[in-house]
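User: Please predict the structure of the protein below. I'd like the answer in structure-token form so I can feed it into my own downstream comparison script.

Assistant: Understood. Taking the following sequence of 264 residues as input:
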Amino acid sequence: RVASGGVASGGAASGGAASGGAASGGAASGRAAGDALPDPAALIEKYGVDAVRVYLLSRVEVSRELPFREQDVAAAHRLLRRLWDEIQDRIAEGKFVSRRVLVAKHHLIDDITRALRRCRFHKAVSAFCSFLKFMRSPETTREEMDRGSIQTVLVLLSPLAPHLAAELWTASGASGDIAAQAWPEPSSELLHPPEVEIPVKIDDRVRLSLSVPSGLSSERLESQVTQHDSVREILAGRSIKRVVAVPGRIVNILLADVAPDESS
């Protein structure tokens, strides 16, 4: 189990109030409707300071008086536990950093930096929820996030869940105090690349991907894709009924007729 109680693998960590992470792995105790809500100290003892902290920061209007609802603190605990699991797996298995991960990491840097500067802490929590979804996607492998990228993510996590981030920082083999690390800067080239890769569907089936200039309007994107030699070769003279072009995302070409080998 984690020494300072970030996320324990078994039962509730002792001294959760002092340790501060997402302490236990157990389910929240059931409460009948109308029962008194648990006090903050009890929630800290059960889930850890970081889980309560993330819960509070995830609320939009943090200046208002808030009830400490156990199910919401439990949700923050689950978020931290999943982050813990995903990052631990990558500490063990990460070998390199892919461009997909680099782009996602720099978008996270940008999102967290903007949110903290504006004191929009719920936006920072939301950005980590999105990044967790990216890490858990079947398209994202554990091998494609190296320790350098992991450590950058932990620096970004530190203001939200400092105890958890510090434990993972040590587990990643990093030296020094995580709180003393320089804040990362986002790359403009990765945030706004000159070209983007666009999947092209024909009758709702992905047939190829094309690199096109970023920032194209839907009309210009449609024109570039439909006039591309590779697309024209696949179409083989068939008539286009409609084109759905979503800039930066995808192009779907719907045909007015069906090729003989696709009619069955």
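That's the full token string. Residues 70-93 form the longest helix (24 residues).
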